[in-house]
Amino acid sequence: MKKRLKIVLHFSKDTWDKAVICDLIKKYDLIVNILKAQIYPRMEGNAVLDIEGKEENIKEALKYLKQLGINVKPLELTIDREEEKCVHCGFCLPACPTNALYMDMKSREVKLDKSKCVGCGACVLMCPLRIIYLPI
Are residues 66 and 87 in the same domain? Predict the structure, then answer.
């Protein structure tokens, strides 16, 4: 059975140079989408991944990452917004790295696809009405 999972990888100073994305694709037959990454040589870093594949392959891949010393956490963040107060100005659209916020061309309204949201909060800063927020 296929499964889809969003995860956050935390790389330590010792694991930043591991070719994990390549291994997830080749060894575990997963589809990997890098939603956000900030990894610098010889420093700590993070990557947000959207992975898809057979449930047993995902379980094995997560074990593999942990064996390498890479901290793995599920991504549970998503934004929320006060729909009734939105004026659909579109200021939030260019800030969204995953296109979770998009303009419906028929209705000319800004829509949110929560399945694409990684909870980065970039749109929160761009909203002039401050009606987009990260729930606690």
Answer: no
Digit-coded pLDDT (tens) for 3-25? 988 888 888 888 888 889 999 99
Between CA 54 and CA 59 the distance in angstroms is 9
Residues 96, 67 within the same domain: no
Count of domains in the chain? Answer: 2
Query: What's CA 95's distance to the chain center, in Å?
Result: 14
Residue 45: which residues within 8 A CB-CB, separation 6 or more?
10, 11, 16, 37, 38, 39
The pTM for the full model equals 0.60
Structure tokens of 113? 């696809």
Task: Say yes or no: 22 and 53 in one domain.
Answer: yes
Whether residue 68 sits in one domain with residue 102: no
Bridge partner list, 49: 7, 34
Which single residue is written with the structure tokens 């997963």?
Answer: 30
